[in-house]
Amino acid sequence: MTDRDYQQFPDDDNGDVLWQMHQDGDDLTEAHEIEYSIAFTSQEQAEKCALFLLHEEQKISLFVDEESDLKEWIITIYMYMEPEYSDIVDLEEWVTKIAEQYQGVYDGWGCMAYVYDDEIEDDESPASLNS
To answer: 70: Cβ–Cβ under 8 A, 6 or more apart, which residues?
Structure first.
């Protein structure tokens, strides 16, 4: 196990997630599809925000979260980028400002892990959750 580089992985939530990805063997030099989410209690505001983001040429999805206690509309913005700390922080600030403009709440980011196992043979498939 290597020591954490606090320049690359600062001591906060974003740094912790990126450090965990690195520890898990995720290649952070590869571009990932990172998802930033905004939650809305108003369908009208969610749709206005979605339209704005589409005009900004962003790849998005909009769905209703029926599972939450109060009905929420969730916009997910999909950014294809290297998961680099300062870029993530900058995008969080941008998404937070947009969320506030449309009475939404920034709800965090996430992405799929990109872990490659060099020992996989041609006839083997990568490990999956379906065992």
So the answer is: 41
